Amino acid sequence: MLLSLTKKFLFIANLKTASTSIERVLGTYSEIRLSQSRFGKHQSFAEFAERFRWILNLANVNDLFIFGVMREPVDYVLSLYNSHRVEQFRSSPKLYTGNMDFTQFIAEWVPKNVDQLRPQHSRFTSAEGRLVTNLLISFQKLEAGMEMVADRLQVRELLSLPKTNPSPTGIGRADLTREQIAWINARFERDREFMEKFCDRIVE
Predict the structure, then answer these.
(1) What is the pTM of this model?
(2) The CATH number of 2-198 is which of 3.40.50, 2.60.120, 3.30.70, 3.30.1150?
(3) How far is the C-alpha of 107 from the C-alpha of 129, rounded, in Å?
(4) What is the pLDDT of residues 113-140, one digit of tens each?
C-alpha cells in the first residue's frame, strides 16, 4: 500500500501481482509506504481509509489516482499455493504448504488463512462495496497497465519494473481436477465479473 500526496496516487497492493516490484519504483514518491504484510501491505482500501482517516482528511481522495492489479483466479490461487511451499515458510506452519497437496490446501490451509484467499475485488472497493480505483490492471496485461500508470504519474521507471519476489515453479492448471477448478471459480466468481467489467481501462 502506497500513498503519495505529492504525486497524488494510492496504490492498493494485491497479493501475487508484482506489488513488491511496483513498490520498489513508487516507494520513493510515497509519504506512506506499507511494504510488509505484518504492517498492512495488503490491506483493502476500506481498511486503509479507516486506519488512515486522519490523512485522507488532509487530501481529497477524489484527487488521487487509485490503482491496483488483479489476477485471473486460477492463476492467483496457484501462485499463493506455490509461493508458500518455499523453505522460508516452514517455520510458520500455518502458512506453509510444502507438506500438503492441493486437496489438503483447500481443506486445511484455506480455512486457517481466509484473509490470504479473500476475493481480490474486495481490496478495491469502499466499505459500501463501491469500486474506488481509477485503474484496475489485469496481471496478464501488466506491462500495458504500467504504461498507463507511468504516463499518468510521469514516472518512466515503471516501464521497466525490477524482477522481485517471483513465485517458485510448482503445480499448474493442468494438475488440478475439474472439481478443484470449479471450487476456485465459484469462490472468485465476483472477481471474474470485476475483471471483465473494469480491468485495463482508466475510469475517471
Answers:
(1) 0.92
(2) 3.40.50
(3) 28
(4) 998 899 999 999 998 999 999 999 999 9
